[in-house]
Amino acid sequence: MSGRKSKSNNLIQAECLSQVQGILRERFCHQSPHSNLFGVQVQYKHLTELLKRTAIHGESNSVLIIGPRGSGKTMLINHALRELMEAEEVSENVLQVHLNGLLQINDKIALKEITRQLNLENVVGDKVFGSFAENLSFLLEALKKGDRTSSCPVIFILDEFDLFAHHKNQTLLYNLFDISQSAQTPVAVIGLTCRLDILELLEKRVKSRFSHRQIHLMNSFGFPQYLKIFKEQLSLPAVFPDKIFAEKWNENVQSLSEDRSVREVLQKHFNVSKNLRSLHMLLMLALNHVTPSHPFMTATDLVEANQLCSMDSKANIVHGLSVLEICLIIAMKHLNDIYEEEPFNFQMVYNEFQKFVQRKAHSVYNFEKPVVMKAFEHLQQLELIRPIERTTVNAQREYQLMKLLLDNTQIMNALQKYPNCPTDVRQWATSSLSWL
Amino acid sequence: MAHCPTRLRTRQTYSRVDTPSLDRKLHYQTSKEMNVKITDCSTEVLIQVGQFVLIKGDDDENPYVAKLVELFEDGSAPYPKTHARVQWFIRFCEIPVHKQHLLGRKPDAQEVFWYDNCAYDNNINTETIIDNVQVLALAPDEVIPMDLKNEKTFFVKLSWNEKIFKPLSPELLAQWDKLQEGKRRCQKPVAGKNKSIESPSWTTGEHEVKRIESRHSTSKSRQTPSHPVTPRARKRLELNNLGFPRTRNARMSQQTPSALLDSPGSTKRKMAFSEITSPSKRSRPYGSLTSSPDLKAPEETGKIQPSCAKDDKKASPDCCMSLRLRAPALKTETTDERILSPTKGGWKSSVVPSVILKPVNIKKREAKEPEVQDEATSTPHHVRRQSSLLTLNRIRQQLRFLGRSKSDEEEEEFLPAAEISDSSSEEEEAFTPLRPRRKPSSMSRNLRSSLKSPLRTPSKTPKKTPEPRTPNQATPRIRSRNLAAQEPTNALEEARLRLHVSAVPESLPCREQEFQDIYNFVESKLLDCTGGCMYISGVPGTGKTATVHEVIRRLQQAAQENDLPPFQYIEVNGMKLTEPHQVYVQILQKLTGQKATANHAAELLAKRFCTQGASQETTVLLVDELDLLWTQKQDIMYNLFDWPTHKEAQLVVLTIANTMDLPERIMMNRVSSRLGLTRMSFQPYTHSQLRQILLSRLQHLKAFEGDAIQLVARKVAALSGDARRCLDICRRATEICEFSCQMPSSPGLVTTAHLLEAVDEMFSSSYITAIKNSSVLEQSFLRAILAEFRRSGLEEATFQQVYSQHVALCRMEGLPYPTMSETMAVCSHLGSCRLLLVEPSRNDMLLRVRLNVSQDDVLYALKEE
């Protein structure tokens, strides 16, 4: 009886959990404008005011939103646009053009995309007709014909703005800013970029036409706020169908945020990076541990997730190497110590390895040279070593100069964790002179 | 084209019917009426002063419409000619395309406009009169009566003076009623009556008339019909005259080569004659006749050009005309038709009676170029002759256009009939070897470029007016908003509106001197009808383009008030081009509405500016952002500066760029030499000037504190002197003021504090804030970099070196050991913000790292905590 009850309970819980997973994953992965904004109220107000003035008064503007990656630039503009579109007098009166520097890699493509999104008359279906030059003059003509009071304002959103600055002559930017500074169709040009030196990228004429409004997003919060954000991000909304479960879940989150180890993990994460995207990544990894048998997130989940996040990828690769390859890396380390970071070639490494093998013949099998060569090449494929660029093409493989891409500390740490490492090898690693 | 054979058959004889009376003042004999007889149509048309007539033009389909004001005969002894003074009417299709929209409605097919422009020649040769027509005046809102809709009736509702459409003046309307009566009796049938009342003086000139006819019939192969006939009518006509046209056509085609060869000879004769009277002018064309035509044309037209502006204007176009007619006979050299028949109204002449105009012109002539006067006066008959040629040409083209539109109409109405007529005309074409003959002849008529032919549509779209936009052609337009834009409600909003860079101020303060210089430059060129270049330089935001725009606006105003000759203004911007050569395409399109490829456009423009003098209107070309037109060969700059040096181009080029030494720096010698030394440099605004600009924009608006304006002016003047910056800062300050104020209804004044905040926002470097707000590891990585730099004494380090420092630092500060991956993430994060300059990450540990901020700034930012 009780077994059946628990079974049905389990079923209900599984149902709830899948919903929880859905809600939280959406929250972590999408920059949905429905989530909350943190610590950017001033900037948000500035931006919405600006957009409203364009939409309602027909005032042309240009603004750059600058902030490091993951600081919520896109989120901010999405929020502002959503609020703008909710206003009744605006929703029908604004055209939006979204461009991304990674997609519109030159002005030609960008122009076609603008024309398509504005749905001008030379657009049929999804195709834009005409050459680059025709498109440009057509678009400019279209924008020029409008005036402040009668034509529909256009909001241009240029994501990865810095990439547009690399276009030839910055034609697109010049024209957009020029429109925003002349009595034509009202436009708002909003650039999103993570580069702080963005203004230096603009050509002087383009720069002069840009209004120099900048909205900086800096992640300027401290750890207490970070903790609050953590709680908010993990909590279930009030509208969650199963109230009891939601209550339980939220209680758990509250207790997590008070847990010392969790705080340590978060503090460590916060120290590395303040941006919310990395927090989302951490929470995502922790969320993956949540199953019907393990319905609530625990501190260990977060600790494990943090370990995954901060793992040294190269050390992991070293763990998977064969003993021969480890020996070669140790030989390289010694060469680096001896020759002070000078590049080495295969022959030098092989000689070093031979010396070790001759001394400790019992611990490592004396591989033949071609086999060692193969191991060497494998290391190169793993990019643990790489040839230095100025080597001549015709140089024999044995004599090609190489550099090690591992730090001494990394090698030592990796060796300590390396399973079944021969003691001799480990000793050899600590000192090249151990045979004395 | 189908009706051409019919046209070949028509012939016109002109004869005066009344006794001439001598006009002392003009030494002309004036008369009241004359006969125009069209042999084929067996009708004779009596033309009277005060009637409306059709006059041959470049376009056969659309002959010009005009009212006869006066008929007279000039006194030149050997070939006295009958002339007429007319009041022009203009068709909608003759109005420049870019001005057609001013009408604001669709014109009726039969609608014409009273042409109110005194700049045009109203003196025509009576030979060019084809027929009389009826022109009815209607009130602007009246509907065109349906029962009168035949092609010989036109309706006037508005007058057109090159700028606006205006309703007709009441006195004009009063005149009309009188005219209507006289109209009725003007046309009487004269079937079979081969009446030719030739005055004695007429016979002397007869051989020349014949020559014209032969030349026209051969070189143009398209004699205008007596009156516009529909294709069906033409067909019927043809059937009536069976036999005759065919043989005649055949004869004509054989005759063509000889006639073509003959025409230069006869012109030579005439040249020799005119040489006596004005050797300076005539000797060259004669000599160069044997040289290649395209070389000759510019020289010649250049010679003749000065007379253009004068009253005897017809001289120059005709001269060019005759040259053009001759040139192809020697060599099938062709040129753009547009050159000859510009869409601009520039070639028509003054509406004002020339009696009034004359003294003015003489004065002008004396003031400027005395030699032009005798040039023009010494060859009056020659001049007149050629004027008739030109007008003939025009009418022919007009007619062609008219015929086409009419046949279009008919196609809609009676499709089968039109088809029949079409097919029959095709048959006819096949029968008579018209095709091969027409091609060279049409080229010879207008020196039409062979390059042009690909543009020609099979339906022979007349190129006099640019092709109307096909219905499927898209109009560039952003959709209009549904709700009206809100008007400013308080002082700050009003100030913001006025401070926007786009707001056009009443005047441009602080640029009075520059304005005056540019104005004088362009004005003098306009008055002299010459060309020239000017180079304007200055850093961005110093009002270069705004000043030029203001100059052009004033000049256009002046032209509107007839203080200045009308001119055409074109603007191109190097930044608004995808590629430097596109500048030709843009200029051509704005000049003529034509579309062409860059190379083709360059050729057409070169022809337009270098080889002909038909355009009597000066073109003012503004080239903004000149430096972007630089190419390896510098051919674009060369052309832009070379065209104004041709006298007939009448091109004023104003160029704008940022650097003062651009001509010396990037231009070849031959380019910069053509640019000349007319330079102007716009200095950055000083603080007092900026202040004045702000004050002038904020007139009578109390939104700023006096100190605040002073502050921003000084700040900006110290930074760049860019007026745009100044305005932007003020605009931002009003926002801050509004934002900081609690009561939105009465926000108060913008204070220095608000302005300082705005200035800070715009100009303060964000690096320090960025460092302050970066994470703990990022900050310690920056510290590690500083430590590494200090250790090595270099400004650059590899990631590996910094990493070891970083690890040591973390150990010291009690931070957990940072793994390589984490540190690399931190490093690339700083790199993406451009706090650091890093190499691409494929170098992994060996990538080199540099600071993008000064070390002091980093130290300052890190110390603060």
UniProtKB/TrEMBL annotation, chain A:
It holds the Pfam family AAA_16. GO terms for biological process: DNA replication initiation; polar body extrusion after meiotic divisions; protein polymerization. SMART domains: AAA. The keyword Lyase does not apply. It is found in: Nucleus. Belongs to the ORC4 family. Component of ORC, a complex composed of at least 6 subunits: ORC1, ORC2, ORC3, ORC4, ORC5 and ORC6. ORC is regulated in a cell-cycle dependent manner. It is sequentially assembled at the exit from anaphase of mitosis and disassembled as cells enter S phase. Interacts with DBF4. Interacts with POLQ. This is Origin recognition complex subunit 4. It comes from Catagonus wagneri. The lineage of its organism: Eukaryota, Metazoa, Chordata, Craniata, Vertebrata. The gene is ORC4.
TrEMBL record, chain B:
Component of the origin recognition complex (ORC) that binds origins of replication. DNA-binding is ATP-dependent, however specific DNA sequences that define origins of replication have not been identified so far. ORC is required to assemble the pre-replication complex necessary to initiate DNA replication. Residues 205-216 have a biased composition (Basic and acidic residues). This is Origin recognition complex subunit 1. Pfam families: AAA, BAH, Cdc6-ORC-like_ATPase_lid, WHD_Cdc6. GO terms for biological process: DNA replication initiation; mitotic DNA replication checkpoint signaling. Keywords: ATP-binding, DNA replication, DNA-binding, Magnesium, Metal-binding, Nucleotide-binding, Nucleus, Phosphoprotein. SMART domains: AAA, BAH, Cdc6_C. It is found in: Nucleus. Component of ORC, a complex composed of at least 6 subunits: ORC1, ORC2, ORC3, ORC4, ORC5 and ORC6. ORC is regulated in a cell-cycle dependent manner. It is sequentially assembled at the exit from anaphase of mitosis and disassembled as cells enter S phase. Interacts with CDC6 and KAT7/HBO1. Interacts with LRWD1 predominantly during the G1 phase and with less affinity during mitosis, when phosphorylated. CDD domains: BAH_Orc1p_animal, Cdc6_C. The lineage of its organism: Eukaryota, Metazoa, Chordata, Craniata, Vertebrata. One of its GO terms (molecular function) is metal ion binding. Belongs to the ORC1 family. It comes from the Eukaryota. Residues 45-171 form the BAH domain. It comes from Catagonus wagneri. Residues 183-316, 366-390, 403-484 are annotated as: Disordered. Signal peptide: none annotated. Residues 375-390, 441-451 have a biased composition (Polar residues). GO terms for cellular component: chromosome, telomeric region; nuclear origin of replication recognition complex; nucleoplasm. InterPro entries: AAA+_ATPase, ATPase_AAA_core, BAH_dom, BAH_sf, Cdc6_C, Cdc6_ORC1-like_ATPase_lid, ORC1/CDC6, P-loop_NTPase.
